[in-house]
Design goal:
Structural class: alpha+beta
Largest sheet: 5 strands, mixed, barrel
Helix content: 40-55%
Distance between the termini: 75 Å
Strand order of the largest sheet: 1-2-3-5-4
Order of helices and strands: HHHHEEEEE
Number of helices: 4
Mean pLDDT: 84
Length: about 160
Amino acid sequence: MDAVLWIVLGVVLAVAEVFTATLFLIMFAVGAFAAAGAAALGAPVAVQAVVFAVVSALTVFAARPVVQRHRQTSSDSEDNTTFGIEAIEGSTALVLEQVDADQGMVKIDGEVWTARAYDATQVLAPGERVQVIQVKGAVALVWRDVTTPGELPEGER
């Protein structure tokens, strides 16, 4: 009977882990399943509790640091490489077709993007260098780049 209770506890902890996604409760579920094994072998309740505590603690201390190392996100990585929209925002672009509040085209890192002026009063002429302020969907919101006027170098066109 004790084995069934430990199995139920292990299953409850495993199901709870699905909702928390911390990979912490699953380690206690492993301890509960080990205690169920001890109970199935006829160990007294005190031994079952010790098996549960020891296996759970060993699992936490052995597996948790490994899990934490592998759960690093891209923002925690050492190289801090951005990609996707984050890499485009803040980059420099070249105006291909006049950009105003309603329409326009720019080239960002060799790709042609639909663009709108971030400031509705700005009108940006072809050949001007602009800064990508924000990306909304497939539209780049741009601002006149006052720090580096002129066209992009030949290799960036």
